[in-house]
Amino acid sequence: MAYTDRDRLIALGGIYQAARCVRQAARQGNVDEGEMTPCIYSLFQKDAASVPDVFGAPGAVAAGVRELTGQLSGGPDRELELTRYVVSLLKLERVLELRKAMVEMIAEGIEEIRPLLAGTPLMDPELIKRLADVYARTVSHLQPRIMVSGEPEYLKDNQNQHRIRALLLAGIRAAWLWRQVGGSRWRILFGRTRLLDAAREYLRAAQH
């Protein structure tokens, strides 16, 4: 399948959206459910018909794409903390790629959770906790470990810890998608203008 700049933008936007939600949880103690839902939804998509379908409804990763636009344009909206999370997620995905047994553990863990979807909302605390447990058993043991910065009271809160770990797992999934559609560091460095054009088009469509 030939992937487009829009596909790559959506995948990268998915990483940024997961990172943005992690920052919200760590610094504010809560997460915008409308932004977090597409991230969690993506974890259960094995055979999506298209890249946008991985995240659900049209415009699902608009918040992440807006963050990405700020980073690429180098404007005042640029945030180094968010960039650090995204870079760490991309690095971890590459490490995970070589750990086939761990990849299978993650896939099996998600499949064990899938039956809950029949009668449980995606944001249900028990479902999020079980996704967090998958992350804790697998990715959390890899290097480089992602060091999340935030308010101590929020970082110590169990439910918030579950949100952060589930979101980091979703960030890894989006990073895998980014590589699958041909994403690379070179695409970001030398294809910035094309990504920005795709971002503007995506955000315009999301407003309608």
Note the main attributes of this structure:
single chain, 208 residues, mainly alpha, YcfC-like
How would you characterize the overall build of this protein?
- With 208 residues, the protein is mostly helical.
- It has one domain (5-206): HflD-like (YcfC-like), CATH 1.10.3890.10.
- The protein has eleven helices and no strands.
- It has helices at 5-28, 33-42, 51-55, 62-73, 80-97, 100-113, 125-137, 152-156, 158-180, 185-190, 192-206.
- Helix 2 (33-42) crosses helix 9 (158-180) and helix 5 (80-97) packs across helix 9.
- The mean pLDDT is 95.
Topology, element by element:
Layout: H1 5-28, H2 33-42, H3 51-55, H4 62-73, H5 80-97, H6 100-113, H7 125-137, H8 152-156, H9 158-180, H10 185-190, H11 192-206
Helix pairs in contact: 1-2, 1-4, 1-5, 1-9, 1-11, 2-9, 4-11, 5-9, 6-7, 7-9
How would you briefly describe this protein structure?
The chain has helices spanning 5-28, 33-42, 51-55, 62-73, 80-97, 100-113, 125-137, 152-156, 158-180, 185-190, 192-206. The chain has 208 residues and is mostly helical.
Summed over residues and divided by their number, the pLDDT gives a mean of: 95
So, the CATH homologous superfamily? HflD-like
Radius of gyration: 16 Å
Q: How would you sum up the major sheet?
A: none
CATH class: Mainly Alpha
Tell me the number of helical segments per DSSP (H or I, 4 or more residues long). 11
The total of beta strands comes to 0
